[in-house]
Amino acid sequence: MNTQNPTTDAAASNLAGRRIVLGLTGSVACYKAAQLCRALVRAGAAVQPVMTEGACRFIAPATLQALSGRAVFVSQWDTRPADGMAHIQLGRAADAIVVAPASADFIAQLAQGRGAELLALLCLARPAERVALLLAPAMNRQMWAHPATQRNVAQVQADGALLLGVAHGAQACGESGDGRMLEAADLLEEVIAHFTPKWLRGQRVLVTAGPTFEAIDPVRGITNLSSGKMGFAIARAAREAGAQVTLVAGPVQLPTPRGVARLDVTSASQMHQCCLDCAGAADIFIATAAVADWRPEQVAAHKIKKTPGGKPPLLSFVECPDILADLAQSARARAGQLYCVGFAAESENLLANAQAKRARKGVPLMVGNLGPATFGRDDNALILVDENGVAELARASKRLLARQLVAEIARRVGAAGAAPEARR
Ligand code: C5P
């Protein structure tokens, strides 16, 4: 789970001020709903829990009350709303209803338009054109695979619900298969994605991230300082904005953003080949990786030994392929079918260096940042250099900057989803 502080979480997400009804139905996965509730609140959302009687058998309402800061609703006969109509009022006061976990029986109720309990009633009564219904199913693999469940799932989707999918793996019953509820962190990403304007819908985005590692011998090598955080944040933001994203990652220990296809590589040559292989099916290329400029000419077959009194080895280097320059010169880029974005990590004269690099690499957009002020950090500040001059993105979390950068790129490529009002 996210371990950043709440202020940073809220600033980095687009959930600040969003009103979310978090519905829980009877499933052992209710414990993950507690984590989701906390994550949503930390991301700035106002969460109103609503539980079925079945959910109350798995987790106490007091837990959800404490985590959300709101009294939990269970019964349709709750007298707190002045007009006694909790099933109407709660839905009207929400931006989205997220049911996690959604049991097989609850999905069946939805499919039939039944309202045996408050939660099903309020899903039925929600103003569907304004209040989305997101479902995170949780059940045994046989229940999930049953034709009745699959029929019901198809029906609720046809009726406008958004299905967040299920995970595969060990289940509480001891079996293993499809039907586990997604983890709270995955669900949080899905809720954030739901609220993200689809600036890049229909676009295919290729991103490189992290350092490369150039071997000297089987146990040593040279590399660059790069955590990969900025590139991973960009991949994530592009996917949230509706793009189909491929992330080519150097050696980093970062979790793959949800919904992103990740290809791991080690060296600059591997990253180069991988990007060449993928670029034919990309519309936008964002080169965030800190690729090594040189690699040792020879890679020793065995560890180079240190001998008493011996001289240090003399290494000679050859230049690594320049991935960005190569793709920027490709036929597709020159035909305007591949929009290339470079990154310039500098230690001084940021603007002049970024401008020079933009010209040298032949890319329409160069993003500049000061290396020592960003390496390994969760925040950054960027300048955007293009044919029109320079724009600044003020210091903020990499998550927020990535979102802003994606909006800027979408505007420049004239992506269908890039409406001017989407820039915020
Ligand atoms: O030449 P320099 O490394 O300063 O350029 C930085 C930009 O070029 C970044 O976008 C980086 O990802 C990309 N690059 C590349 N292949 C290289 C070197 C840099 O794609 N071999």
3D architecture notes:
- This protein has 16 helices and 19 strands.
- The two termini are 26 Å apart.
- The chain has helices at residues 6-12, 30-42, 53-58, 61-68, 86-92, 104-112, 118-125, 141-145, 147-158, 184-194, 229-240, 268-279, 323-328, 331-334, 350-361, 398-413, and strands at residues 19-24, 46-51, 96-102, 132-137, 162-163, 167-170, 176-180, 204-209, 213-217, 220-223, 244-249, 261-264, 284-287, 294-296, 317-319, 339-346, 365-370, 379-386, 389-397.
- Helix 15 links the parallel strand 16 (339-346) and strand 17.
- With 424 residues, it is of the alpha/beta class.
- Bound molecules: cytidine-5'-monophosphate.
- Cytidine-5'-monophosphate (C5P) binds at residues 208, 268, 287, 289, 291, 320-324, 342-344, 357.
Question: Helical segment tally?
Answer: 16
CATH homologous superfamily of the largest domain - what is it?
Answer: CoaB-like
The helix-and-strand class reads alpha/beta
Task: Using the coordinates shown, work out and report the CATH topology of the largest domain.
Answer: Rossmann fold
CATH class of the largest domain: Alpha Beta
Q: What is the spatial order of strands in the main beta sheet?
A: 12-11-8-13-16-17-18-19
Give the averaged pLDDT, no decimals: 93
Shape: elongated
Named CATH architecture of the largest domain: 3-Layer(aba) Sandwich
* Rg, Å, rounded: 25 Å
Give the total of beta strands: 19
Q: Can you tell me the residue ranges where pLDDT is under 50 for at least 5 consecutive residues?
A: 1-7, 420-424
Strand content: 15-25%
Total domain modules = 2
- What is the distance, rounded to the nearest whole angstrom, between the alpha carbons of the first and last residues? 26 Å
Assign a percent range to the helix content.
25-40%
User: Which cofactors or ions or other ligands sit in this model?
Assistant: cytidine-5'-monophosphate
